[in-house]
Design a protein that fits this description.
Helix content: 40-55%
Bound molecules: glycine
Largest sheet: 7 strands, mixed
Radius of gyration: 20 Å
Strand content: 15-25%
Number of strands: 11
Strand order of the largest sheet: 1-2-9-6-5-3-4
Length: 361
Amino acid sequence: MQQQTVSVASVNLFIGSTVNENFSAFLREHHFHKIFILVDEHTLRHCLPRLMDTVAELEGAELIELESGEINKTIAVCTQVWRVLSELGADRNSLFVNLGGGVITDLGGFVAATFKRGIAFVNIPTTLLAQIDASSGGKTGVDLDGLKNEIGVFAEPRAVYIDPTFLHTLPKRELIAGFAEAFKHALIADVDYWQLLCRTEMANAEYWEEIIRRSVEIKQTIVKADPYEKNLRRTLNFGHTVGHALETYFLERGESTLLHGEAVAAGMICELLLSVDEAGLDSKSADEYCTQLVKRFPHIAFDQMANERLIELMRHDKKNVEGEIRFTLLAACGKPVLNKACSPDRILQILTAYHVKYVLS
Ligand code: GLY
C-alpha cells in the first residue's frame, strides 16, 4: 500500500496503511507525560483495539468515552471531558488523541485547544467525512442550542493519521454520506475528479485511498491559501448554508436521523438550483449535477412548514454580513462564486423547488 505525507502549514498529514508506524515514531520522539484517547462507543469497540495492537507506545493511555452523535457536540460534554482531564492530572506535556468521526475531532480538538490554554492533540479520523474534511484544516468546536459549530477556535492538530481501512468499520449509510464532501470538493475544484466520482462504486474499497488523497489535496490547497476563512476557504462551505440549517432543524425536532453528509448533499442540490439564476451556472449542468447527487444521496423530506425556520437558521450562518444571507455558489464545476447574497424570497423559492422536485415526486 502506498503512503503519502502531506505537509501543510504546521500539520503533518499521513495517509495509508503505515500511518500507525508514523504515529509510533511521533510518540517516541515526543515523550508525552500522559496520553488521553477520546472515543465513542463505536470507535471504542471497532477501532481502538486495532490502534492499541499496533501502537505499543499507547500502553497506559487513559480512555475517555463520549456518547456518539451530533446531539452530544455541546459545551456541557466538553466540561465533562475537561473535568476528567483535570482530575487525571493532564498537563501541558500531555497528548490528546481524537479517535473517531467529525464529532470527536471537532469536540476533542476544541477541548484540547482550550484546556490549560492548549495541549497538543492529534486526529485519527475513522469516518470518511472526518478523513476528508473535519480532521484537518484546524476548525474545532461545538454546537450551541443546535446551531452548528457556533462556539470554537482554529487550532491545528500536531498530526493527522488517516487509515482508509477504518472505513470498513462503518455502517454503509454512514460511509455513503461521507462521500457528499468528496462530491463537494469535486464541484468546487475539479471536473475530472467529479467524473471519477460519478464512475466510482462508492462501497468499493479499492477506490477509497485515491478519493481520500484527492479530497485532502483539494482541501489542503484551499486551507493553506486561507487558513482563517477570510475568503477563499468559504468555497468549502458550498452546500453548507442550506445543509447546516437542515441539520439544525432536524436536531431541534429531536430527529437524529439526518447525517451531516446527507444534509450537505441536499444543501448542494438547493445551492446548485440557486446557482443557475444567481451565479450563471448553466441549467443543463445544474440538472446533471443534481441528477448524480439524487442518485446517491437520500431526499430530505422537510415539509413546506419548515421553510421559514430554515431561513431563520440560515441567518446564523458564519458567512453572513450585516444580516444578508450569503452563499458560496457555482458558476461552473471548479468555478465557485463567493459571498453571493440571496434574498429570503429567493431562498424560499429554491426550498419549494427542492420540495416539489425531490420530495413530492
Ligand atoms: N469543513 C469546511 C472547512 O474546513 O472549512
